Amino acid sequence: MIALSKIALVSAVALLGLGWAYQATRPPPPAILGAPGGPPISSPRIRLKDGRHLAYREEGVRRENARFRIVFIHGFSSTKESGFPVSQELVEQLGIYMLFFDRAGYGDSDANPKRCLKSDATDVEELADALQLGDRFYVVGCSVGGYPAWSCLKYIPNRLAGVALAAPAVNYWWPLPANVSRAAYGRLHARDRRTFWIAHHAPALLHAWLAQKWFRVSPIVRAERDAFTAKDWEILTALWRKQRESGQVDPAKATQQGTYESLCRDATILFGTWEFDPTEIENPFPDGEGGVSIWQGRQDKIVQVEIQRYVAQKLPWVRYHEHPEAGHALPDMDGIGDEIIRELLLGESELHQEPRAQDA
């Protein structure tokens, strides 16, 4: 009887474990925007070919009067309201129209159950066409918004006038030399390594991992102090305080449809197996009619500099800028946002291009 009781107990525990695993791999349904009880829609939106909607926000000079038109791609756990730190003086001087949008599953943009690298690029293209930005437009991708910018370079290069990647997120499972990936991955916090490993190897469990309370998860995902340098933290806390006081940004809006459709999809696409190698992308501007630049802080604790240097080394047509004192908040440092935009549009930069050697 004792043996049977033990067998029954083990069986019950096993069944409970299987039940938890089954539930853990079932994605929760998103909150439906505009539906009864769902988040209200407070932004203008365009309808995509597949029936989804993308929410957007316009800034700068009037679209029809603009000399330059730029689409900005926001980062992780963010929305179009976060904007980009470019001065009004530069906007007016150069005649810049700026288009910000919520990526699929974020803010007021519908979730995309088929979201992938290519769909992120075609979303940008359809948005640009709906708002009549012309045959070519500029793209700026910040942090995790960097991977959709790479997708644009891969899938819609003929639509681009230029691209700037500011502290763009990297994938530790890209086809990298072992010494580069090992050094970069090893510099991450142990909890970041664990979370990114799950996103790559067991993506179906990522939502459950982020939701559980037994173990602490990634400082990067939680935007904790450990994820940033002291300078980053000083810059970002001041920025977040300013945003709260102005009411411009509602931190909860980014994930109002649920973390699965926003944060989890971001992480599993970014750290998943890509269908292309960014180091093999062809130069979209062989005649020099546009340019691509990467801006990286050498002290960045979120995006490791070793991988950024390697990518830039493999793509000699990319202008690589590495700020020796900056971290992940590089674009928000005084004057850097203007510097990024000025170089994107005019090819001018006061920050010299850095050596591309991996040990620079």
Automatic annotation (TrEMBL):
<keyword id="KW-0378">Hydrolase</keyword>
<dbReference type="InterPro" id="IPR000073">
    <property type="entry name" value="AB_hydrolase_1"/>
</dbReference>
<dbReference type="InterPro" id="IPR029058">
    <property type="entry name" value="AB_hydrolase_fold"/>
</dbReference>
<dbReference type="GO" id="GO:0016787">
    <property type="term" value="F:hydrolase activity"/>
</dbReference>
<feature type="signal peptide">
    <location>
        <begin position="1"/>
        <end position="21"/>
    </location>
</feature>
<feature type="domain" description="AB hydrolase-1">
    <location>
        <begin position="70"/>
        <end position="329"/>
    </location>
</feature>
<protein>
    <submittedName>
        <fullName>Alpha/beta-Hydrolases superfamily protein</fullName>
    </submittedName>
</protein>
<dbReference type="Pfam" id="PF00561">
    <property type="entry name" value="Abhydrolase_1"/>
</dbReference>
<keyword id="KW-0732">Signal</keyword>
